Amino acid sequence: MFLIDARPFKAAEAEARARLASAQSAFVLARSDLKRAEGLSGEDALSANELDRLRAAAKSAEAATAAAEAQLTQRSLELEWTTVVAPISGRVSDRRVDVGNLVMGGAGDAATLLTTIQSADPIYFSFDASEALHLKAKRDAGNGGAATRAQIRLQDEASYSWEGTIDFTDNALDPRSGTIRGRATVANPDGFLSPGMFGSMRLANAGSVKTLLVPDAAVQTDLARKVVLVVGKDNKVVAKQVQPGPLVDGLRVIRNGLAASDQVVITGMQFATAGSVVAPQKGEVKPRALAAKAQAAPAAAQATLDR
């Protein structure tokens, strides 16, 4: 990615190599002197003090050699670091320095920022889950459910078209907010997702619930009420107040207000008014397939994705 001027580091490495050679020569000489002194006997034998001095000199030369080797290793590493390579694969930001700029190493504000790199595939989706959702996921997992998958919807998407695997849940809830941190890993082979985006998350397969689903267009607003038109007695249209829930694959969950036997008006709502008589026909309702992933970036590119 970057090349730092290596000339001073090459010179430092050469100096360290020369110091090592000098230390090795001194060690060889000190060891030879000690060996000769230990081989003398009789009148040629050295005193105990002289032998101790030679032994100390040999050990000192050996230690100096080890220090020179360590110094050479350090200088070689510094020379190697003049070639800056990417530690991870991902998306690189713009460069913050130009050719000829002075850069500084180290930690904190003293170091020079060259660029930033973000891992793009896979990408992490970080979220804060409520205590109720956390408890439900744990109970579903304990009952044999697969509550480790997460479905994600970006800001401009109507459906949860991204799927990831929850690989981290914190060890405690935040007592101030009553939430727990979690993280899901999401495959991002085309690089569409970018760090910093916001999205909504729900658990996939977090237990099964029996509920009524109707096309979202069948739920109408009557003043401040949500109503659904149904065909009642004598084929008369009746407006039933309902309590709608979330949207699931194009179908609206009805929490309350409808019965499984009700005949819901799903087409021609503009001609069916409360009290009118209609000729009902059977219709077919199918869940809408998850919307295909958009190829262009979202209009609002904010998010809880990070890496």
TrEMBL record:
GO terms for molecular function: transmembrane transporter activity. It is found in: Cell inner membrane. Its main location: membrane. Pfam families: Beta-barrel_RND, HH_MFP_RND, RND-MFP_C. Residues 212-270 form the Multidrug resistance protein MdtA-like C-terminal permuted SH3 domain. SUPFAM superfamilies: HlyD-like secretion proteins. InterPro entries: MdtA-like_b-barrel (IPR058626), MdtA-like_C (IPR058627), MdtA-like_HH (IPR058624), RND_pump_MFP (IPR006143). GO terms for cellular component: cell envelope; plasma membrane. Residues 13-82 form the Multidrug resistance protein MdtA-like alpha-helical hairpin domain. It is a lipid-anchor. Residues 122-203 form the Multidrug resistance protein MdtA-like beta-barrel domain. GO terms for biological process: response to antibiotic. Belongs to the membrane fusion protein (MFP) (TC 8.A.1) family. This is Efflux RND transporter periplasmic adaptor subunit. It comes from Stenotrophomonas maltophilia (Pseudomonas maltophilia).
